[in-house]
Design a protein that fits this description.
Mean pLDDT: 76
Oligomer: single chain
Number of helices: 5
Low-confidence stretches: 36-50
Order of helices and strands: HEEEEHEEHHHEEE
Number of strands: 9
Distance between the termini: 99 Å
Largest sheet: 5 strands, antiparallel
Number of domains: 2
């Protein structure tokens, strides 16, 4: 009888220990799972909120036409490629103090942005032209835009893959205006919205302006006090 009781006791203890170990393992797995979910959510939020530098506006100057009493604003416009490399700077002179930066924007469904999709993980953009408040858009100065055949080009600054244009990207820009109005085509390409967008602000001498594109949105303009002027290589 004593041996039987000892055996039962050992079995009970072993079972209890197994249950404790199993329970600890379960709680540990739940903790790790929760930690993983928190990290994943943080990454999703980061992808949605992240923006990247598209262009800088520097060396802003103003002048008044003595005859017409019209103000003119001049500035350097520097775009950046996918790897952050500055492209050749361009100097613009527009009529007025409020300046418009006209662009084409392709915004993908948020699910693709959340997942960090290689092709659809961030909004695409293309600067078309710049103009002042006292100028018509058609009178603006071209930056990049449709070719003579009407197709939208894919300059190096806007390519998903530096040095080449993939079929997916080429199709998006070639059919941009169809993408803007064809809902079924938008769904097939994973696009949430496709349209023109003009970001504008009053440019002040002594300030620099950074144009940024949001992964899940459009263009924003941020201002900061300008550093000491350095050489600009057009």
């Amino acid at each position: 009888m004593v041996k039987l009781l000892n055996a039962v006791y050992k079995i009970a203890v072993a079972g209890l220990l197994a249950a404790l170990v199993g329970g600890a393992a379960w709680f540990a797995s739940q903790y790790l799972l929760k930690d993983w979910e928190i990290q994943r959510l943080r990454e999703v939020v980061t992808r949605l909120e992240t923006d990247r530098r598209a262009a800088d506006v520097t060396d802003v100057t103003r002048e008044m036409d003595p005859v017409t009493k019209t103000e003119w604003t001049s500035f350097w416009f520097v775009e950046y490629g996918p790897d952050g490399t500055a492209l050749p700077a361009r100097r613009f002179r527009v009529q007025g103090t409020v300046v418009y930066f006209d662009a084409l924007v392709i915004k993908f469904e948020r699910e693709h942005v959340k997942a960090g999709d290689a092709l659809r993980g961030r909004s695409l953009f293309l600067f078309r032209r710049v103009f002042g408040e006292h100028q018509k858009p058609a009178e603006g100065f071209p930056i990049d835009g449709p070719t003579a055949a009407g197709a939208v080009p894919v300059p190096a600054a806007y390519r998903l893959s530096p040095g080449r244009v993939g079929d997916f990207e080429r199709e998006l820009w070639a059919d941009f205006w169809r993408l803007a109005v064809d809902e079924e085509y938008q769904k097939a390409m994973g696009v949430r919205a496709s349209h023109g967008e003009a970001a504008y602000t009053r440019l002040e001498p002594g300030k620099t302006y950074r144009l940024q594109i949001e992964n899940a949105g459009g263009i924003t303009i941020r201002v900061k006090t300008a550093p000491a002027p350095g050489p600009i290589v057009p």
